[in-house]
Amino acid sequence: MKFVIKSISKNSGRLGQLRIKESQELATPLLMQTTKGGSIPYLTADAFEMVSNEQQLLQLTLSTMDQMAESLALWTRPLSDYVGLPGHNTVLMIRDPCETTPAGGNDRDVMPLFTRRGKESLTATQYMEMVAKFAPDVYQGLCDADTNPESTKKRVQKSVDRTERFMNECYALHGKEQRLANSTLLAPIVGGYNTFARTQSIKHAKEQPAGSYGGYILEGFHTNGLAATTLSAAQLLPIVEHCLQQLEDDKPRLMPGAFTPLLTLELIRRGVDVFDTSYAYCAAANYKALTFSYTKDAVQHAAFLDLTDDEIKEQFTPLLSGCTCLACSKHTRAYIHHLYKTHELLGPILLMIHNLHHYLGFFAAIRSSIAADQLPELIEHVRLQNTDAEIDYRIEANAKVISKAAMGKGFIAAAV
Ligand SMILES: [Zn+2]
């Protein structure tokens, strides 16, 4: 994996190019496509092609794919071929950013892996054996990321110490594993909201010989799912900034989770390069269409349109006026509300098509703004949406639709 910074500005983020193996260059800030069980949630590969025909970085998660490991051990073609999305790049992570990761289950030498069937425990050696079966283009190092803004100092320190122990093994095994010869390892940075712990975690990664890893994954700020949409910027941004100041410029920084569009922009302004589409998924799963504006206009916009709202049953307009996605060009709000009423799976499918289209457009607008040195202006536009107050982008669980089926059979349904 190669990463080249194209431009960098103190207050306006950075533009880069990521090249994974022989792939096309992926422009950063980049949006990874979150998957569940190896597929884009609600969408077939053909449906996804109608959203985007550009090369993507697929975010695959062990917590939704662990059962495929045995079969994959016999697979000799790229991992993206196995999941039916050939030609795309793959990054294997541990946790599903779309669903809340339960707390606990950490032990001295094992990390809990919460799957659809319950909890499993993995040692660093077992983890690396499993990753080798997947042979992804990029993968994250094993870490204890079970921390959030409320974690105690003791829990945070344990997460750092365990991650160091796990990573000592991962670094050693990475070079030996034949099936990982072409894979890039991402160094996990943990330590909750504690500056001392974060520095310690960064120091451990930076002590490794040159070439041991190709980028960073910043973990342990939240426990995934909707919780990431409620993080306080005042709490999160200083600690992220503390980390980024200590990282080299020439390695990409990934930050998984359903951060709000506004928080995503603030993280980009500080130098985070890669995010995922879990926010777009969480909105669709809760029957919300993203309607915020990222192009300068003078109209007031809301963060979402709630398709379960009875008021829209006679609105024969698209989800978002001017949107060119398949859902907006062919269907009305009234029809999608009807799909909700009748529990048709086509409802979340159309919402996912719109939300992904909208979020990919948002990231393209972010890159253009950075190139024009206008990121602060875009942030202000997204913050206010031409109203007088900051827009609330948090996603609350929609009690009308949350069910095992609506949540894409995530393990959260079983855990609640
Ligand atoms: Zn649309």
Structural account:
The chain has 416 residues and is α/β, with parallel strands linked by helices. The protein folds into 2 domains: 2-284, TIM Barrel (Alpha-Beta Barrel), CATH 3.20.20; 288-406, no CATH class. Helices cover 36% and strands 16% of the residues. The protein contains 15 helices and 15 strands. The protein has helices at 45-51, 62-65, 69-72, 79-82, 124-134, 153-174, 195-206, 233-244, 261-270, 278-285, 326-330, 333-341, 346-371, 375-384, 412-415; strands at 2-9, 13-19, 25-28, 30-34, 57-61, 89-93, 111-115, 118-122, 138-140, 184-189, 215-218, 253-254, 274-276, 288-290, 304-306. Strands 12-11-10-9-6-5-4-13 form an 8-stranded parallel sheet. A 3-stranded antiparallel sheet has the order 1-2-3. Strand 1 (2-9) and strand 2 (13-19) form a beta hairpin. Helix 6 packs parallel to helix 7, helix 8 (233-244) runs parallel beside helix 9 (261-270) and helix 10 (278-285) packs antiparallel against helix 13. The chain is globular and about 60 Å long. Mean pLDDT is 94; it is low at 404-416. The chain binds zinc ion (ZN).
Determine the CATH superfamily of the largest domain.
Queuine tRNA-ribosyltransferase-like
Query: How far apart lie the N and C ends?
Result: 39 Å
| Shape descriptor | globular
If classified by CATH, what would the architecture of the largest domain be? Alpha-Beta Barrel
Total domain modules = 2
Radius of gyration: 20 Å
Find the structural class using helix and strand composition. alpha/beta
Strand content: 15-25%
**In CATH's first tier, which class of the largest domain applies?**
Alpha Beta
